[in-house]
Request: fold
Amino acid sequence: MSARLAIAVAASAAILLGCQSRTAPVSIAPETVDAATAKMFDHSAFDAILRAHIREGMVDYQALKAEHAQELDAYIATLGAADEDAFVGPDDELAFWLNAYNAFVIKGVLELYPGLEKTTGVRDFFEEKRWEVAGALRSLNEIENDIIRPKFEDPRIHFILVCAAQSCPPLQDRAMNPAKLQAQLDDATRTAVNNTKYVQVDARRKALRLTRIMRWYRADFVEKDGSLEAFVLRYLDEPAKSQLEAGGYTIEFMDYDWRLNDAGAAASR
Reply:
């Protein structure tokens, strides 16, 4: 067993045992694993953390810090020791970077929690703070803009990467799994597109209101589908899909709420 796999397995086991004191045990059905899948990077420790502490897309930072901060640190250590040349195909590599970004964001919040209201109030959170990942020190912006976006050219990643803000897409309660990544990307995108927090089709006003994420990264969506409308239509459910297909819509972008995606704070309001 490799060093990184041993650390991840141990951390995952510890998390599952610890969760029994406050939630029902998480059961994971056994799966048939082929040789290629077995060589993929193991994210089971991060998966267990997310399963224990994500509440409707937001993070229970207080409980995570109290109960599983050490397990998160152990998982992050495996990210630092990873070998970029050892990935088993593009899905293994993309899952790695998506999970790494989200894990580093959570860790960055925990380092300032409690007392942190929004990550935009921390000068070096995205640009200057460096995380050890795959043998190099990289910022969150470097991971997103120098690796994930240009290398994989997949706009669906914008519904997985979570910057710890209320208006971010909901954080998935499962780690990205290399063997299931395409389905996870589709599911997350479809869920967001059909949530009025991110996409609104106002047939009366003929207005298509979109998350500001689609304004900031418009080029990613247009390059893939030709237009923002075409991308949305690919995932939109009825009756909104037929309404938008009628055409004549003006695009508007929603305001962005940068307040922390803190499940504990949301529950207390």
